[in-house]
Amino acid sequence: MTGKSSPFLEMVRGEIRLRGYSIRTEKSYLYWIRQFILFHQKRHPAEMAGAEVKAYLTWLAVKQNVAVNTQKVALNALVFLYAKVLKQELGDLGFTLAVKQRHLPVVLTQEEILRILAHMEGRNRLIFELLYASGLRITECLRLRVQDVDFSQGSICVRDAKGNKDRQTLLGKSLVPQLEKVIEESLKLQAEDNKRGIGPSLPNQLARKFPNAFRSPAWMFVFPSSSFSEHPATQELCRHHLHDSVVRKALQHAVVAAGIDRKRVTCHSFRHSFATHLLQAGCDIRNVQELLGHNDVKTTQIYTHVLGQHFIGLSSPLDRLRLLGGL
User: 29, 56, 82, 303: which is the annotated catalytic residue?
Assistant: First the structure.
């Protein structure tokens, strides 16, 4: 049973798209619904209810040791399935929650960031400079369109980010010349594509309402893919943005070349470093919260733990013992 061959999963896919969910959400929901069905020996979900959902979610936590966020995504997928597709109430599930562990974010020092960037060039270097300069997630950066970059205001508009929210963030002044050049190259590529009747991938509703929107420079990706692909919703040939796997590979090579082997460096480390370094420079935590797009300041406060601000004024008892001459 696959997402393409199963009529039931195709029906679920249709319900997801009808509500305008993102492609990532669609893939995630279909994956967890499929795993739920396989867990129960391919029984049809309509023949099951809350007890089977509870058993599956508990198995994920107890036997598979999944993270709490993974369990929540699976729960959201199954709630959507029963509430929106099958029109069935699950009631109070009372399942076993996965253990939530607090992990401090991996933050790079400014010297480490310089070392990594020194082993990058061109487009890849600009992408990671943007992650650090603006606090972007990697997908937010790669999905940027020409209209999202405001050079006059020195800002970037992040559209339809996590939680379906838009937000404004900083645009580093030092990146303006490089970014202008990259955008100019992207628009030239768009002009060539338009001659063939092809353009950047667009939200499905927009493409239907404005069939010629793909010709507008505003909708061109800042970092377009080097090849064409089928639009996941319309199956029309288009040019999507650069895939994140290309950028992640570039980061892996740069980290190894920089000799940074005592930290697990990911694309998100640059976003963590953005927030931490702003707080170190004295930026108000509420401003950092707004730039990152966090709903709750408690999420942003994790960076105060990285800084050690939660124990400012305290000293180690061993240090006090040394001052007393005990050692």
Answer: 303
Please answer whether residues 239 and 201 qualify as being in contact, where contact means their C-beta atoms are separated by less than 8 angstroms. yes
In a 13 Å sphere around the CA of 234, the CA atoms on its Cβ side amount to 15
pLDDT digits (tens, 9 = 90+) for 239-260: 999 999 999 999 999 999 999 9
Active-site pick, 13, 239, 241, 294: 294
- Helix axis angle for 122-134 and 268-280, nearest 10°, is 40
Residues 6+ apart with CB under 8 A from 167: 157, 158, 161, 290, 291, 293
Q: Could you tell me if 77 and 235 are in contact, meaning their C-beta atoms sit under 8 angstroms apart?
A: no
Catalytic residue among 115, 125, 159, 162: 162
- DSSP lists the bridge partners of residue 157 as 168
**CB contact at 8 A, 12 and 18:** no
* Helix residue ranges per DSSP H, the chain: 7-18, 23-39, 50-62, 68-80, 110-117, 122-134, 138-142, 176-195, 204-209, 244-258, 268-280, 285-292, 297-300, 302-307, 317-323
The answer to whether 154 touches 173, Cβ cutoff 8 Å, is: yes
DSSP string covering 101-166, please? ---PPP---HHHHHHHHTT--HHHHHHHHHHHHH---HHHHHT-BGGGEETTTTEEEEEEETTTEE
Indicate if 137 belongs to the active site.
Answer: yes
pTM of the model: 0.81
Name the catalytic one among 34, 82, 132, 137: 137
Nearest to 297 by CA among 306, 284, 309: 284
pLDDT one-digit tens code per residue, 127-184? 999 999 999 999 999 999 999 999 999 999 999 888 778 999 999 999 999 999 999 9
